[in-house]
Write a structure and sequence with these properties.
This protein has about 220 residues and is mostly helical. About 65% of the residues lie in helices and about 5% in strands. The chain has a two-stranded antiparallel sheet.
Amino acid sequence: MTTFVHKRLWETIADDLRDEILDGSILPGSRLNEAELAERYGVSRGPIRDALTQLGRTGLVEDLPRRGTFVASLTERDLVEVYVLRRAIEEAAVRLAIAKATEADIAEVMRLLVECEEAYRAGDLAVAWEADMAFHRSYCRLSGNRRLIGIFDHLASQTVLLMRTSLATRASLGWTPPVEVHRHIARGIADRNVELAVRAVGAHYQYTQDRLSMVEEPAGPTD
């Protein structure tokens, strides 16, 4: 029997706006005007309002009293806070995933790891960060903990927005895709080695936090 997934109108609009925010088509700080969006989508303001409310729940937009709704302008401090939470839930996730994962589950984690690496090699960061989130979500899903997955999904959208607006400008600070630590996480899960997997998750977030804390020094005199 075929199952059809029917999205409500506001969900379709929310997904569309989310994609435009995350790919940079709608920039941080941009005002999201209900009337203009209703005209654009050919709907009443109700579905627009519901879509913006959903985006607010994920942290991608913020409603400012007497000013309106704007795309969130997140900072590197926000990213550090997000990563503290992601590290905690993903360390829990790999423990649960290792206890429950089938060989087919592990094969899917490895497949998404390969897709992530290929996306980074292709050089399209927007696509790569989405693939990165899919890899991390794969073992969060294997935890079987719905609340954990819900928290991850909430933080994942913020992570992509923050990575695009912050790390995209930080190549000079030595940030490179954490390909090797991703492999360690996957290997820990594949080998059902809890200690290795948890340590790899910690190393992943420490790697990025270390680079976020780096400050470019002004160029000094040359000899």
